[in-house]
Amino acid sequence: MKRKLRMGMVGGGNDAFIGAVHRIAAFMDGKIELVCGAFSIDPQISKQSGEDLFVAPERVYLSYEEMIEKESLLPEGERMDFVTIVTPNFLHFAPAKLALEKGFDVVVEKPMTVSVEEAKELQETVERTGRTLCLTHTYSGYPMVKQAKAMVKEGHFGKIRKIVVEYPQGWLSRLTEREGNAGAAWRADPKRSGKSLVMGDIGTHAAHLAEYVSGLKIEELCADLTTFVEGRLLDDDGSVLLRFENGAKGVLMASQISAGEENAVRIRIYGEKGGLEWANEDPNNLIIKMLDQPRQLYRTGNAYGAPYTLSSFATHNTRVPAGHPEGLLESFANIYRNFAATVTAKREGKTPTPEQQDFPTVYDGVRGMAFIDTVVKNNEGTEKWTKFVL
Ligand code: NAD
User: Fold this and answer.
1) In total, how many domains does the chain have?
2) How far is CA 344 from CA 115, 131, 350, in A?
3) How far is the CA of 186 from the centre of ligand 1 (A)?
4) Are 31 and 85 within one domain?
5) Could you tell me which residue ranges the Gfo/Idh/MocA-like oxidoreductase N-terminal domain spans (predicted)?
6) Which of 106, 108, 113, 137 could form a disulfide with 93 if both were Cys (CB 3.0 to 4.6 A apart)?
7) pLDDT digits over 119-156, tens only?
8) Atom of ligand 1 nearest to the CA of 42
9) Choice from 60, 68, 109, 136 to test ligand 1 binding pocket (greatest atom count within 8 A of CB)
10) Across the chain, what does the average pLDDT equal?
11) Closest Cα partner for 211 from 149, 144, 272?
């Protein structure tokens, strides 16, 4: 395919938070262009957003149904190739399903849906249609997260015993949803957010990061959810003990009332021989701690010689020379670039490389929804451990 992939958007208008980040990430490598959108629940805002983004007025639609239907009727050479869905959680499933059924690939925000049933239906739809679905678990796009995963996989730390993953934020320490914050309002509303606020909004990121870096699946868990802020309808803090498939044990903390915190995602993994530490607030560093050795600091973009050579997954996802900071936007762009390369390769009848296929998919989305369900079930019930059932 000697052209850019054509993107449509559902949500992400001038009234939205993460939509603009998606556009920066999608455009960073020059492989994707925006051709259409149903950018907002408010038609005026959608229209104005389309104008601001130089989208042809006839391709700014009043609803995602209209967009997907009308785009599917356009000639092959014009119609969008994929849809990015950046709406509140309850509005992920329907546009994703419709888009897949009409032959479009999909990029969708996490949590993928608001129930395991919906998530499984999307999985079935992806498998039946052969389309590609990418789920934007942002933190898995960083080069040093890829390096961490590669080192665990090659056995650098020996058998993994302990996984500690944290995602504290402080922005919901007050009743923000009643202070005119639209993003907080839908997140704290069970009808629009799902069964859990904290686990849907950030706990799934942490659970995905733990499974992604360790390469291990969560098998059972024991959870404690709390609503600290009076008047709030959903939980805003959670602590979860995890048991992984190889016998490793873990701790996951996700909290939105950790006053003063921003997006302090951090993961530590320990094996028989040593461990690693990576933190979102210092994303170009990977700290390696081996038994009886001084600490090592791996940094993005370095051409270290053996045995410190960075993995092909880390270098494939690095954009700037060592010493120049990379961050969230590049990590997000890595997810888009790998998705775009996979979609293009599939359309050309080629097999994408393992590095190109390295982005979260519908299967991660199903696990994310099962994680939320299992946490809520365990928190509400009396059993000590609840099996992670898909
Ligand atoms: P937001 O409230 O800021 O924006 C939501 C957008 O969706 C708005 O433009 C709104 O008008 C639009 N919308 C609502 N209903 C619509 C409809 N029927 N048709 C078209 N547009 C519609 O929300 P946000 O903070 O941008 O979050 C959106 C999604 O992204 C959520 O699922 C959230 O969990 C996820 N998110 C992910 C990350 C990440 O790190 N990956 C970060 C922030 C948000």
Assistant:
1) 2
2) 30, 12, 8
3) 9
4) yes
5) 5-135
6) 113
7) 999 999 999 999 999 999 999 999 999 999 999 999 99
8) 11
9) 109
10) 97
11) 149
Residues 71 and 132 in one domain: yes
In angstroms, the CA 25 to CA 220 distance is: 35
Q: How far is CA 72 from CA 30, 59, 63, 69, 178, in A?
A: 24, 12, 14, 5, 40
Q: Is 91 in the pocket of ligand 1 (CB under 6 A)?
A: yes
CATH classification of the domain holding 290: 3.30.360.10
Do 167 and 206 form a contact (C-beta atoms < 8 A)? yes
Atom of ligand 1 nearest to the CA of 87: 7
What interface predicted TM-score (ipTM) does this complex get? 0.99
Q: Does some domain include residue 348?
A: no
Instruction: For residue 73, count other CB atoms closer than 10 A to its CB.
Output: 8
Residues 35-50: pLDDT tens digits? 999 999 999 999 999 9
Q: What is the pLDDT of residue 390?
A: 83
Give residue 152's pLDDT. Answer: 98
Indicate if ligand 1 lies below 6 Å from the C-beta of 202. Answer: no
Q: Please tell me the distance from the alpha carbon of residue 249 to that of residue 247, in angstroms, as a whole number.
A: 6
Whether the Cβ atoms of residue 7 and residue 19 lie closer than 8 Å to each other: no
The CA 114 to ligand 1 mean position distance, Å, reads: 14
* Segment 77-112, tens digit of pLDDT: 999 999 999 999 999 999 999 999 999 999 999 999
- Is residue 291 within 6 Å of ligand 1 at its C-beta? no
Distance 294 CA to ligand 1 centre (A): 45
